[in-house]
Amino acid sequence: MTDIFDITNETAIDLEKYLPDFEAIFAHVKTVLAITEPLELSLTFVNPATQVELNQQYRNKDYVADVLTFPLEDESPIDFGKVLGIRVLGDIFICPQKAIEQAEAYHHSLRRELAFLFTHGMLHILGYDHIEPADEEVMFGLQRKILDDLQITRNLIQ
Fold first, then answer.
1. Is 70 helix (H, G, I), strand (E, B) or coil?
2. In sequence order, which residues have a C-beta less than 8 Å from that of residue 82 and are 6 or more positions away?
3. A single Pfam family, by name (predicted)?
4. What distance in Å separates the CA atoms of residue 2 and residue 120, rounded to the nearest whole number?
5. pTM of the prediction?
6. Is the dihedral of CA 140, 74, 9, 150 positive or negative?
7. Boundaries of every domain in the chain
8. Number of C-beta neighbours around residue 60 at 10 A
């Protein structure tokens, strides 16, 4: 069985040129983390109103989050890997409008910001977190490695 990586853009922002980055990040995360089994992951780009609705409904937060992750592995009593032969990770939602604001605020490209948010979300959905300083060091180190390896750096102008 092969990976299933679905990308949906529900916004009016043209993200087509960034799709190869998301595919490359998906594959490189698997390589860096030595994940050999097939994965299923959904990445959806949504407008701010939808992102607020998701944040309110599932996290009790009332703001536009840049990225939201909804892991299925932690929530499901079914081991989809055994049943379907694929590890079903869940869903990542990114708000491109928020990414545009953050790219401007951090003085780097939209490409870099979207790549960072997807990498961050994918690591979260795989169980990484940054609540404790030691965990933050591991997760942020992985983010840097993945993006640096793919040459998607902070000073990228595209």
1. strand
2. none
3. YbeY
4. 23
5. 0.92
6. positive
7. 4-149
8. 7
Are β-strands 87-94 and 39-45 bridged in parallel, bridged antiparallel, or unpaired? parallel
Q: Which long-range contacts (CB under 8 A, 24 or more apart) does 69-73 make?
A: 69/93, 69/121, 69/124, 69/125, 70/125, 71/124, 71/125, 71/127, 73/127
Q: Report the C-alpha dihedral over residues 26, 66, 136, 90, rounded to 10 degrees.
A: -50
Q: How many angstroms separate the CA atoms of 158 and 147, rounded?
A: 14
In the block, tokens 């043209």 appear at: 14
Annotated binding site: 120, 124, 130
Residues annotated within the binding site for Zn(2+) are 120, 124, 130
Residue-wise pLDDT for 25-54, tens only, equals 999 999 999 999 999 999 999 999 999 999
